[in-house]
Amino acid sequence: MPEHDTYQRLITLLDSAAVDYELIDHAPEGSTEAVSALRGHPQSEAAKCIVLRVKVDRRTTRNVLAVVPGDRRVDLAAVKTLYSARYAGFSDAETAERLARSVPGTVLPFSFDADLEVVADPDVVAQPRLYFNAARLDRSLVISGADYARLAAPRVERIAGPTVD
After folding, report:
1. Which CATH architecture has domain 6-160?
2. For residue 43, which of 31, 36, 93, 123 is within the disulfide window of CB 3.0 to 4.6 Å?
């Protein structure tokens, strides 16, 4: 598995922007449900980050980092409509890891790759406290949704489906 400098890159970004953040060390975990329990907050306050492959037409494929509340699923039909695409689905693991520069379960709601466009649901940027794994299975980060929106500059669109039971 390749080494990624994504964690340090994130911390450098936050420090250089003088953003208030909190680090939380915990047992290694990549599942949103399980890590939210370890961190002690509702899943709705977590950022679930999924790399998608969106085929706009026969020649154009876009890579999209969909960021939704942790208690919701990505609405693939909404993403497809958003891009007027023929297809929207999950990226393969190898491509997702390369673009996100982190392993599954640790994908940040930020993109450090020009080929990975970030789309966040409005309920993510509205969170007073937004939790996510910090490109590591054993460490999470908390920032405000407003600071996240300012730094990550995601396209903000309704892309979350209903609450997961």
Report:
1. Alpha-Beta Complex (3.90)
2. 36
